[in-house]
Design goal:
Elements (H helix, E strand, L loop, with lengths): L1 E5 L6 H10 L3 E4 L1 H9 L4 E3 H5 L14 H8 L5 H9 L7 E4 L4 H5 L6 H6 L4 H11 L5 E3 L2 H12 L5 H27 L13 E3 L17 E3 L10 E4 L5 H15 L5 E6 L2 E7 L3 H10 L2 H4 L2 E5 L5 H7 L4 E6 L4 H7 L6 E4 L14 E5 L2 E5 L12 E2 L7 H14 L7 E4 L4 E5 L5 H12 L7 E4 L7 H9 L3 E4 L6 H10 L3 E4 L8
Parallel strand pairs: 1-2, 1-4, 2-3, 4-5, 11-12, 12-13, 19-20, 20-21
Antiparallel strand pairs: 6-7, 8-13, 9-10, 9-11, 14-15, 16-21, 17-18, 17-19
Length: about 500
């Protein structure tokens, strides 16, 4: 019996190799793995001695040899296969322990040269793992160091079962597929976001979640590979286990707060911002965000785009929130927040952009496939917006319109946002018509609607929505424009004395 061991990640490999040797397996290895095993006192043959061929081209060619692949692929139940091995002096290989060059870690390094990346594309390793996995009825293939321990126990107990080998083979194929997807993404770059064939590499972050969106559904969290940070990479500092819905809402909170360069606080309920504010004083930003909809804020999720201060933590202490997500926490803030037993406190890792990690594609599952799109990320200049009414917005109104327009990107369509003083005052979301959204936003704002500005994520198809908003006391409007009835909408704005600008861009969020 022979075991071929060639790993980059050597965690636990000595213990597994020792179990194999004690069970009577002859060990064969290459390069650094051979050195690690011999230094541990194990008897190991060099693969080049077994194949009769030296490693070539700086190690690019070592396992690509008929002695290796014949020993892996021969079917033990076919006499002709076994006869061919004997005729060519090839011994069967019964166990393969292998994992691949660190391509993912290499491409994640800043300033890495293409030549160095290319050297970390493994060729022989994937070929060897695929061959062993294909012939799993006879060959045990182990790629994940997390599996080394239990496989060693099974080897000591007499060997792996067919079902165990099949599961290990599936892990090996997944390992290679993930590797290839990362290589392909690097090769493709960002110029071709929608290739004819696309593999997306993701890695499960931990075990299954308690359940999915509802208790009868199963759920799990996966991270992009290479990692792009964000909520998936957040460190949980305190509180109960995160649920599926907690993660969705925490992501929405982080995205909404990260939309702004100024100090921002978001309050999220069911992925929609019900509160959002920007202010130089963080505690005041929180209070203004909370005041956006105090009823909905209860049991919501908070997002901060700056480290949470002790003053802000004290301001929110008396309100029940499910989750807080931020890039950091002052000691005074942690002392206050950790007194809330069930509050989940998440710290987002820093990203090169200082905010949201790059997300080249947004993916959504539909029946039978996937919908992909590039991110809704435009660097818009409010000073370039088209003034279409007799009155243009004041400087204060324009600043609030810019805030409301950014906020609208994070609220489900049809979206209407009312804002004042860089704070969300009322919003309507997810309605089948825009008039309903206006009604909901005005009702949420109540008397505070007077003097607000309005943002609409898409054009007003009729004047009725704008007329209803004017009755609530708004003073200015930002919308994309482009309706066949724009003239009617503009006339209604002029009649009400409103300032209105067209952006030429819409921000649907379904």
């Amino acid at each position: 019996m022979k075991a071929l061991i060639s790993v980059y990640d050597k965690t636990g490999v000595v213990e597994l190799a020792r179990a194999l040797q004690e069970a009577g397996y002859g060990l064969v290895s290459t390069g650094g793995t051979h050195r690690t095993l011999t230094e541990a006192g194990l008897a190991v043959e060099q693969l080049s001695d077994v194949t009769g061929s030296p490693e070539m081209l700086d190690g690019r060619v070592k396992t690509l040899h008929p002695v290796v692949h014949g020993g892996l692929l021969a079917r033990r139940d076919l006499p002709e296969h076994m006869g061919e091995l004997e005729a060519h002096g090839i011994a069967p290989i019964d166990v393969v322990v292998g994992n691949l060059y660190p391509f993912e870690a290499t491409v994640s390094r800043e300033g890495i040269a293409d030549a160095d990346v290319l050297e970390n594309i493994d060729i022989g390793g994937p070929t060897m793992l695929r061959a062993a996995a294909k012939n799993h009825p006879a060959v045990t293939v182990v790629v994940d160091p997390a599996d080394f321990g239990w496989v060693a126990e099974r080897i000591r107990a007499g060997g792996t079962s067919l079902e165990e080998r099949r599961r290990l083979a599936a892990t090996a194929f997944s390992h290679v597929a993930m590797y290839d997807s990362i290589v392909a993404a690097w090769m493709r770059g960002s110029d071709d976001p929608f290739p004819k064939e696309l593999s997306i590499g993701v890695r499960r972050v931990s075990g299954e979640l308690r359940y999915g969106e509802n208790p009868h559904q199963r759920g799990a969290l996966y991270a992009d590979a290479p990692s792009r940070g964000g909520v998936v990479a957040a460190e949980q500092l305190h509180g109960k286990e995160l649920s599926y819905n907690n993660i969705l809402d925490a992501d929405a909170a982080w995205r909404a707060a990260s939309e702004f360069s100024g100090q921002a606080v978001s309050v999220i309920k069911h992925t929609n911002p019900c509160g959002l504010a920007v202010h130089a004083d963080q505690a005041e930003a929180y209070r203004r965000a909370f005041d956006g909809d105090p009823v909905s804020a209860y049991g919501g999720i908070l997002g901060f785009n700056r480290a949470v201060t002790g003053e802000a933590a004290e301001a929110l202490r008396r309100v029940f929130f499910e989750v807080i997500v931020a890039p950091g926490y002052e000691d005074a803030a942690m002392e206050i927040l950790q007194k809330k037993r069930d509050l989940r406190i998440l710290r987002i890792p820093e990203t090169p952009s200082g905010g949201l990690a790059a997300a080249p594609l947004q993916v959504r599952r539909v029946s039978g496939g996937l919908l992909l799109q590039t991110a809704d990320a435009l660097d818009e200049d409010p000073s370039a917006w088209q003034v279409v009414t007799q009155r243009g917005p004041s400087e204060t109104e324009l600043a609030d319109l810019a805030f409301a327009w950014r906020a609208a990107k994070h609220i489900k369509s049809n979206t209407i946002v009312l804002a004042k003083g860089q704070a969300l005052v009322g919003m309507g979301a997810g309605q089948p018509n825009r008039v309903n959204s206006v009604h909901l936003a005005a009702r949420a704002a109540g008397e505070r609607a007077s003097g607000t500005v309005l943002a609409s994520d898409a054009f007003f198809p009729f004047a009725d929505g704008l007329e209803l908003a004017a009755e609530s006391g708004i003073t200015a409007v930002v919308q994309p424009g482009g309706s066949i009835r724009d003239d009617e909408v503009i006339a209604a704005a002029d009649k009400a004395g409103l300032a209105m600008v067209f952006t030429g861009v819409r921000h649907f969020l379904h």
